[in-house]
Amino acid sequence: MKGMNNSLLEINLSKQEVNDLPLSDEILNDYIGGRGLGVKLFTDRIAPQVDALSPENVMIFTTGPFGGTSIPTNGRFSLVTKSPLTHGIFYSNSGGFFAPVMKKCGFDGILIEGTLKQPGYILINGDEGATIKDASSIWGLDTEQTLRKLKEVEGDKIHVLSIGPAGENLVKIAAIMNDADRAFGRGGVGAVMGSKKLKAIVVKGGSKKTEVNDPELLKKFVKVAMDKIKVVPITRISLPKMGTAALVNVINTLGMLPINNFQKGYDERAAQVSGEAIEKQILQKDEGCFACPIRCGRMTKAGDMEGKGPEYESVWALGPNLGIYDLITVTQANYLCNKLGIDTISCGGSIACGMELQEKGLLKDNDLKFGNAAILKELVKKIAEKEGIGAELSEGSAYLAKKYGTPDSAIHVKGLELPAYDPRGAVGHALGYATSTRGGCHLTGYLASLEIFAAPKKIDRFTIAGKPDLLALKQNQKATEDSLVICAFAGWALGLDYYARLLRAITGIEYDVMELTKIGERIYTLERLFNLREGIGKEADTLPPRFLNEPLKEGFSKDNVVPLQKMLDQYYYVRGWDENGVPKPDKIKQLGIEFS
């Protein structure tokens, strides 16, 4: 298939075996690449009820047909595995420069299974293939130290996925860091890598070029795509100028910026940690991924530390959600999460849960209280090392709140802490949280684009009319975008119709919007079927009780709760699922899914 190498690198750590497996055109036609390819390979491989931290769990890193071409923002790639936090299927996405080099090495994906007896790392060296090497000298290092050490050994022109101490210690909110400052962040995927005693994956070299069916046509389409990105305000102005943290003031103004573990939706102090504040006080320069004209990354300096970020979700999770508005402290905590390999959203969500438990008198830790910026950095370190209260926080908020007898204080869906949009301020977005196959995720559908940002049109953020239909469509389309693979921000300027043109130019296959949407539905439904097999069904398609029963008392989202059940039944109907959220046999047959 043009645009792909039709090749999967399979590595069995237990057996120390490396194989190059062919990928059929049939599987690529049905699932494309990226997330879809990873989901298909994963669900074909994993037996029921496998422990996420056992050797039987697999990790699958995949790129797609856009990777390695001239298409803007094509440098992203996917990871699919089973999450130790949600116990369900988990897909993640990261950018940077790793994926294009992996593809130049001749591989569309890397499948890793088993576990090493001693710490090791994988080296994929150009056209020479892959080897497993000893990592005893770098085990215990943080991600920045690991990157520096590996560059000393393997040369400067490498790209590295690595875990920090959090992953090594099997912290269930641990991340895999991509060249030390990007992340496969959510779901505890760093713990999966740590359970395999795998410190890092290194790529370098490679001479394989992505073969394109019609280079001249692709060149024309790419030019138009670049023009579109330069016209749309969010990709032309907001993201390049202030990065994702431009959202802080916007979401706060709407009264849906979660404050103090989602107990409020507005605080005037939020401006102190906004994108505008970052630009004025700590910004050094902008930064971007491979083939990215948007360059939303922020390289910053906070006090005596410097690094990348914080992004919107990170600045909120480690800031307003903890009642902290000191930009320097929040930014330094973000740097520490990157170095130690911790997901910032779940880190902040777990700490916020602990602070609420302390506020209620259930957790006897006088320092663990909203607004106490002095303890934040030390808490991050304790989580990575599972020290003291950090050992409990490292298990995630659902575990923590259940242990102290008040599960409602954990703000999560399916075990995954919610991101920085209070669902009482946008009910379609709320339905997306409840039905996401990976848990509390804002990117699985992202109806906020319509309800908040009027892209491509504005819809009432408080009405339920049409939301189930729109959400199912957006979830399907996002699954396709994640399979191509391309940055979500490009979607603000482009769209599935334009992606179909680009894909036709690359592959020579006559894809259209209908076919790409069906592929997305196939992927989403297969994820649902896997979760159902693992015991994650209708009862998990819900929200924390406070969003269903407790209206916000301030801001422009006050007096609202989420009418979830009214939307959920219609959502199941639209998807062709029964009243229990189980895909009907005729829907499975229509999508051509084989799964048991």
Task: Summarize this structure briefly.
By secondary structure, the protein is α+β, with helices and mostly antiparallel strands. It has three domains: 7-204, 4-Layer Sandwich (Aldehyde Ferredoxin Oxidoreductase,  A, domain 1), CATH 3.60.9.10; 243-410, Aldehyde Ferredoxin Oxidoreductase Protein, subunit A, domain 2, CATH 1.10.569; 423-591, Aldehyde Ferredoxin Oxidoreductase Protein, subunit A, domain 3. Helix content is 39%, strand content 13%.
Which structural class fits the helix and strand makeup? alpha+beta
Largest sheet, in brief, is: 6 strands, mixed
CATH superfamily of the largest domain: Aldehyde ferredoxin oxidoreductase, N-terminal domain
Number of helices: 24
* Overall radius of gyration: 22 Å
Strand percent estimate: 5-15%
CATH names the topology of the largest domain as Aldehyde Ferredoxin Oxidoreductase,  A, domain 1
How many angstroms does the end-to-end distance come to?
28 Å
Overall average pLDDT: 97
Query: Per the principal axes of the C-alpha atoms, what is the gross shape?
Result: globular
- Give the count of structural domains: 3
- Low-pLDDT runs of 5+ residues are none
CATH class annotation of the largest domain: Alpha Beta
- Please report the total strand number as a whole number: 17
Side by side, the strands of the main sheet go 2-1-6-3-4-5
CATH architecture of the largest domain: 4-Layer Sandwich
Helix residue percentage:
25-40%
